[in-house]
Target: Glutamine synthetase
Amino acid sequence: MTASEILTLIQDKNIKMVDFRIVDLPGRQHHVTIPAAEIDEDMLNDGIAFDGSSIQGFRGIEESDMVMRPDLDSAYIDAFTAVPTLDLVCDVYEPNGARYNRDPRFIAQKAEAFLQKSGVGTAAYFGPELEFFVFDDVRFASSQEGAFYHVDSEEANWNTGKDTGSNLGYKVKNKGGYFPVQPTDSQHDLRTEIVLELMNAGIRVERHHHEVASGGQAEINFRFDTLTNVADTVLLYKYIVRNVSKRYGKVATFMPKPVFGDNGSGMHVHQSIFAGDKPLFFEEGSYGNMSKIALHYIGGILHHAPALLAFATPSTNSFKRLVPGFEAPVNLVFSKGNRSAAVRVPIAAVTPKSARIEFRTPDATANPYLAFAAMLLAGLDGIRNEIDPTAHGYGPVDKNIYELSSKEKQKIRSVPGSLEEVLGALEADHEFLLEGGVFDRDFIETWIEFKRATEVRPLAIRPHPHEFQMYFDL
Model:
């Protein structure tokens, strides 16, 4: 859209406010709201100033002036504001007009440009599947004298004996949420309303259903798109999920592991590369109908996975999900249809254009711009260096990995077990991310120190409630 078309939209839809939005390093959106009467073509083309020192991971106070400039094609009429409001996703610029190197959206755009320059293909398509929980009550605290968390859901299996005056049963059993009909599925109407809002926002939705875990776990799938566009969609998707849940008096979270002893929430990411209209991942008759390019892409993903997870599973909570026994994709192998493998090759109803790989380890605490860009670069490194996943010991493994013998299991490598470990892996292995100037050393160093300072160290120095159960009487 052009600036004049945005102004026409504002007039035609009686828009009263315009929201300019940016994303910080962890992946949270921030916004500035401007009365529509103050919006003109110059503002839409040139952007507005903001304080970069107040955004996590951006700038120090001594060099805080920055500019956010809207991507006019991102216009979305907000469904959750009291007055008509138009939301615009923005890119971040230096005061001199140069793009800001730590803007996650810029990194995603540079990854797409690098693909085109590489000669491998013209577009990378990503289809993330985000899982989340919808709770009825969430309480938590972490302070000097104590810490706790408590989540609750009317459908949860732990509430079968709860005296609510009228407990109607039909609770979701532990690991029994995939996918019973109503009334056991108590959140069908809520998910349907989320789907309608997603569709009203222009997002193509493919399906929705209850997920495996008790306590309100859900999944809503939308159609794949190019890298930056789909990262934009992820943030809008999360915004809509959270706000529809709020309408229902509930709260949504994309934490990977908010419930102990049941399945966690992942973000399985389907990926493929095209050259124009030609799909590059299909070769009929080969393993999983995968081309050599696709297998080398898989090789790059698995070879760089320990470092890649610093962006794809970037929270301490991520590694509460990545443990054996809960369909967790902790095994650094690829396989046809095997959901315990880090990379799955979907084989049901696959056509040349739908041939793709599915990286199952990521979760939705990832900043989608950074995670998708890093995945693409890892895959391209695999293609460029012809990393054969079989020759490197990454499979294929088409057996249930949890039922293998001890000797067979010893041959299978696992993902690192903590955020600190993957940050260390990123320190040791990040040259593939520097290709084409997509990431730079300043960003990598900033990310590692930011994560250690704001997440790893604060958690490491605090007593955990379960430690009292284990150690208080020693």
Observations:
- The first helix runs from residue 3 to 12.
